[in-house]
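Action item from last week, closing it out:
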Amino acid sequence: MVRPREFELEEVSEGLLNAFWLRGFARTSIPDLTAATGLLPGSLYAAFGSKEDMFRVAVERYVAQLRAAISNGVRGLAGVQDVLDTVVRLTASDPERRGCLILNTIPESSSLSAPTRRQLQSGLRAMRRFVRDRLREAQDDVGTSVDLDPLAALVFAAAVAIRVLGRAGLDRRLLQDIADGATAAVRRALEHG
């Protein structure tokens, strides 16, 4: 007879996320994961499978939390600014300055399985699509026609820079300047398109 799970899946998933986000995939040990979740190794493996499966649960949770934080219904150019402002706020308010789980994992991704690498790439593509959607709305609002791909790349690069430089401990003012500069560049491109 299979024993029912005796833990709260949301709490355990959050524990997995925090452990991997703080240490990265390779440096996170099973004892780290048991400490973060309160589960014994056998329970962790039974519930989630391998360490890499646990990591995928963490990535899924991270992407869902990020999507929820930036999806507040603000449209167009104000939506672009809001996305970048949110990235600044999330980065600067994190006392651990952990940066972005996905970006942090890139240097070690060659040791991960193809499905995990695809999941990481999917998370990055989702962010770019979200930004591009806000840019398309901004373009419609202004009534111009410009190539949105370079603008989406600029905003995406600004978000990446904010996360990486924030993780390096740079101050919030610089992070906000990056956000404001990217938004100003997008505004100029749309108005003069």
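Closing note: Residues 71 and 83 are 8 Å apart (CA to CA).
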